[in-house]
Design brief:
STAS/SEC14 domain-containing protein; alpha/beta; five-stranded mixed sheet; 23% strand
């Protein structure tokens, strides 16, 4: 299931993924929310907090399909993937080469830093 992270910065479309993730989650929640943000801000700052096992993604290539679907309807600016799964971090790094905008992976303990980076392009100094 995908849910909106309600306390994210106003210019960030932020989502939490838990349990099983389906194409319908993406079509019914993510795309409409992303469209609203792009219409309001003219660009997309996107965060996906993966709080689920990769085995819970239906159709195996869900992440790739999701990003490609969003690519066709938006203007990417920054996108953060928050996960401790190394495979997803590697995918994000590879994906950043072929997509417009900036893509970055963050470990789960850095969710706040990822939200801050999505909002303004800077990381919190520690």
């Amino acid at each position: 299931m995908i849910s909106i992270i309600n306390d994210a910065p106003e210019n960030v479309a932020a989502f939490n993924a838990t349990g099983e993730i389906t194409k319908e989650d993406f079509e019914n929640l993510v795309i409409p929310h992303v469209k609203t943000k792009v219409e309001e801000f003219g660009e997309l700052n996107y965060l996906l907090n993966l709080d689920t096992d990769l085995g819970n993604f239906t159709a195996g290539a869900w992440l790739q399909d999701a990003f490609l679907g969003i690519k066709n309807i938006t203007k990417w600016n920054r996108a953060a993937i928050v996960t401790d799964k190394e495979g997803v971090q590697n995918f994000t790094d590879i994906f950043s080469v072929v997509m417009p905008g900036e893509f970055k992976s963050f470990p789960k303990e850095n969710l706040y830093n990822a939200l801050y980076w999505c909002q303004n392009g800077n990381e919190v100094e520690e």
